[in-house]
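Example 305, ligand 3-phosphoglyceric acid.
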Amino acid sequence: MKILVATQKPFAPAAVKQMKELIKQAGYELILLEKYENQQDLTDAVIDVDALIVRSDKVTPEVLQKAQNLKVVVRAGAGYDNIDLDAASQKNVVVMNTPGQNSNAVAELVLGMLVYMARNRFNGTAGTELKGKILGIHAYGNVGKNVARIAKGFDMQVVAHDPYVSSEIVERDGIKDFEQAEDMYKYAQYISLHIPATKQTIKSINYDLLKNMPPNAVLINTARKEVIDEDGLLKLMSERPDFTYISDIAPDKKDEFETRYANRVFFTPKKMGAQTAEANINAGVAAVNQIVNFFKTGDIRFKVN
Ligand code: 3PG
């Protein structure tokens, strides 16, 4: 069996080492394609592989078409909006993710970026504290739960909204649950996004939702840039000089945001949320184990298509 690990943004070397060992132990062959520059490089590399491990790499119909032996794709991470699920299903390719494996890393980055901006990028001027502030978590999944746990350590008041998680589960963690997103956005000065990019959520974080946020509002996005209605957010930021936007991956209109609102935006140059050795090891090893279990026992527990 040939397993291709294709990562434009590579795993930490320690993760690759462990993945390599596990693949060898299973009697399979690892092919590594790191930091590739063109989509064609991926399309060329999949030709005779049986399994594919990716991160945010784009698994398009063209890639799937070329991969005649491919049986399984594992997205080493949570969001699988980079994989064409319909095209995979049509070719009988099983697609899986590795939920929860990198969520602590993303959650730590949320609090890190919040502190960074609350302290004016450590520029020597007096900033503000997170203690006592209200943090609304939009989607209470693996990342949202970790953000809640850490934010409680900062003594923030944590609230949440998730249409797919029951109030009982949210409230069991001592967190106020909002049935309506609009109500949470009116209540929380800080909002942290943890929704996937789907047909329903793309551009759903819009002017109308954000306009009622309390004074000195901060929106932090470590989910997907696509969930933001960028025109709506630009309009809101022109009307609300107290509004800050922080994102782990620059918006499409990055230059406009940075030119118009330099002090009120911060964007990582590359998506950094899951970029820790620990998260890479957790997600990379889980991906290999899932592939080995799939081939050896037919395990499809984490199938998403
Ligand atoms: C995820 O969906 O798991 C995160 O967004 C991390 O993505 P990455 O593996 O491309 O860093």
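Summary: The CA atoms of residues 135 and 158 lie 5 Å apart.
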